[in-house]
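[Archive record]
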Amino acid sequence: MLRLFLDNRVWVLLLLPAILALYLISYFLGYQAPFGQENQATQILPYFANLSMAHLLAHFLMLLLNAVALNWVFNGREFLEKNTFIVSLNYLILASFFHIWGQASWLFVAHLWCILGLGLFFGVKPQQNSKKAAFNAGFAFGLSVLFEPEFVVLLPLLLLMFLVLRGYFWRELLLIIIGFLLPISGIYSYYYLSGESIQINFFTDFAYYNATWQDLTFIGLLSLVFIFSLLGLRARLHKASLKLKKQTQILTAFTFFVFAIGVAAFFLSGQIGLLSLTILPFSFYFSYALLSSSLGISSHLFFYILFVFSLLKFILFTI
């Protein structure tokens, strides 16, 4: 299976629904092990609040869409000389730790806008005027805040990423801020003009979250993926082009920021939204580890252990 996704065979994307179906089967056979606190505040649509099958279908479709979109960013922005589709498989495996089948959630809709925002960032040319790309990228990330309000903390990160990529161009930095705030101000304006009340909590109340052993297991696995990702990135940078080095610099800044603030948010409030964003860079960098000749069989063995555990965790946690 791993060899199929590592090669340039576009038809392997047709296997993604079957792989995702394995998670559904495992879920129905076992016990759903939520990571962090369950978020009851957001619903895909109020009408579907009590229809668990609607949430199952929404999760299924959004996960597939996000996996394909993230793989498109990887191939389209030339993170590798040849096309590979392992990124989509990595995304599905890692995402399986961050959602609960059948529970209403906007998290993966927010992921989609972040994926599109990253794709726009990677399209910025360091030596060319990037006002349009800067605004569009900021706007995409701003839309993600409407679905996952805690993503509002990404604004300083976006400015830092653009500074690394383009340098100090204050007009373009201002356009990122305007684009980011436009969806938020738009939704507030709508509710104000309509006379309806709106309550968006950008930051949850801080209270130490007493993590379970399942939670700590997930954090440990994420840390191992992080290590393998960094090893894969290090091996890749030895023969990287200047363009790829710039792209990996801003993605590495994104990785460290969301991992650090995501772990903090998890232990302070039990929320997993920010930590779930580590899936995006990990899916890229773990692909380098799997393709690295220096890591060899160790990365492949870890991949299969991670994959099998992600499938069986529903059953193992009942023991």
Summary: The CA atoms of residues 164 and 249 lie 7 Å apart.
